[in-house]
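Teaching assistant's notes for section 4

Start the section by putting this record on the projector. Ask students to predict, before seeing the second block, whether DNA damage inducible protein yafQ will look compact or extended. Collect guesses on the board.
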Amino acid sequence: MPSGKAVPKRKKVRLPLRSDYTKQFEKDFQRLSRSGKYNMARLKVVMLLLIANEGPLGAEWLDAEISQKGCTSG
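Reveal the predicted structure now:
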């Protein structure tokens, strides 16, 4: 007879990806942060999602569709 307790589907999880920062990464991050053009908080969120390695990223993190409307070839 099952108990009323919810049982997690997986008790064990994979280790997160290794996340060593190179000097170049730190320089690029600081440069982008100082520029003020980019939302670095969103970058940090997606980096943590990737490090957690819990599955594919959601649709909100995928690239936007590129439409061909208005493009002329030739």
